[in-house]
Amino acid sequence: MTGHPTSYLGNWIHSFPDHYQWSNATLVCKGMAPTGSVALGEIDQVVQKLHARITEPQAWWEEWGAMGERVEGYAKTAAAEKRDATAGNYYLRAGNYYYTGERMIEPGAQKTAMYKKALHCFHEGLKRRYANIEFVDVAYEGGAPMAAYFLKSPVAKGPAPTVVMFDGLDNCKEMSVLFGGMELAFRGYHVLAIDGPGQGESLRLRNLPSRYDYEVPAGAAYDYVAGRADVAGDRVALMAYSAGGYYAPRAVAFEKRYKAVVAWGGHYDYHAAWVERWQKIKASPNAAATSHFQLPWVLGTPDMESAMEKVKKFTLEGVADKVTCPILIAHGASDLLTPPSIAQQLYDNVGSKDKTLKVFTPEEGGDHHVQVDNRQVGIDYIGDWLATRL
Which of 302, 295, 298 minimizes the C-alpha distance to 275? Predict the structure, then answer.
């Protein structure tokens, strides 16, 4: 594996040097540590057990699931004893562990069952720890409503600026509201953390596959927040991360009511990115961050061939120049999923007069994909950038 020549490639980043899929997924879980919703000691216990079972694919969900069950047990005991603050912490950690295990299970009953465990624990944790979160549905023309959380800023007074935050390809609104939403709420922004089509609960339990024209769900999200009395409708930004680096710029190219956009991880031609990933998966499944089933599942297609055809429409060529609002593209110099050159391509082609490309270096931290190695530096930079645009 190669990245930035001075990138830190130690065991904290690559827990499994010969298994990038497991390493990346573990790092995503570790990246939740600043939110207090995972414990590095518990993660390390799972990692050590997985090292002993490195040749067993099912070990991934078995060991993460076992840790989830153990931690959820402590949560249930605390809840029964009315120690709700403590129970909330345990529930959030259990939710993250279940969700980490779920990502490697192929679509089906087993995957759904583990996801429901994760969602239950997340709900139990969030309602105990964060009274300023509302569980909401966002009406959507594609069928069922999109599942979302509205996080009210504890410091906002009167109608406040608001950030609509969509996920990436394999994260969920529960993680988003914690590693992104909480910092923004502290700074005075309300946050709508939403599972759009192809994401989280909206995909898993509401059967909403992804779509290339993300201005449709983004428009529905804007309608929801602008209809609230506590939101300043003329001060709403859109943000999405990882695969959302395609979704967000695409959305604001056509949905002009948003005043700013953040592509937390730049994309340009998502089909081209998947051509490269698919070659890696076929050559060595362990060398790619994404499972072989993921793209067809997210897109709602029966197989990879049809998924690759559908994803051809997921491109910003001929679209990026229509982005006119202020845009921030935040990327990592050592990103192994999407090279920094792709972020540069997006930057070069967007039509905005106010555009910023921030590439985090190994020296400052956050140089990996979507700053997963140091989420805080990413969201801090985003928060500072938004402060001068909203």
Answer: 295
- Report how far residue 18's alpha carbon sits from residue 54's, in angstroms, rounded to the nearest whole number: 9
What is the pLDDT of the chain when averaged over all its residues?
A: 95
For the chain, percent helix, then strand, then coil, each to nearest 5? 50, 15, 35
The first and second tokens of residue 141, run together, are 């023309």
Give the end-to-end CA distance of the chain in Å, rounded to a whole number: 40
For 97, 107, 110, 174, the CA distances from 114, given in Å and listed in that order, are 10, 11, 6, 15
Predicted pLDDT at 12: 80
49 lies in some domain: yes
Burial 296-331 (b: 16+ CB within 10 A, else e): bbbbbbeebeebbebbeebbbeebbebbebbbbbbb
CA 369 – CA 356 distance, rounded (Å): 18
SS3 109: helix
Q: What is the pLDDT of residues 342-387, one digit of tens each?
A: 999 999 999 999 999 999 999 999 999 999 999 999 999 999 999 9
Neighbour-count burial for 132-157, b at 16+ CB within 10 Å, e otherwise? ebeebebebebeebbbbbbbbbeebe
Sign of the torsion formed by the C-alpha atoms of 382, 388, 389 and 390: positive
pLDDT at residue 9 in the model: 59
Say which CATH number the domain at 50 has. 1.20.1440
Domains in the chain, number? 2
Q: So what's the pLDDT on residue 280?
A: 87
Among the listed residues 304, 327, 301, the one whose alpha carbon sits nearest the alpha carbon of residue 316: 327
Q: Is 275 part of a structural domain of the chain?
A: no
The tens digit of pLDDT for each residue in 22-81 reads: 999 999 999 999 999 999 999 999 999 999 999 999 999 999 999 999 999 999 999 999
309, part of any domain? no
Question: What does the alpha-carbon distance between residue 201 and residue 207 come to, in Å, rounded to a whole number?
Answer: 9
Residue 301 counted as domain residue: no
Q: The whole model's pTM is what?
A: 0.95
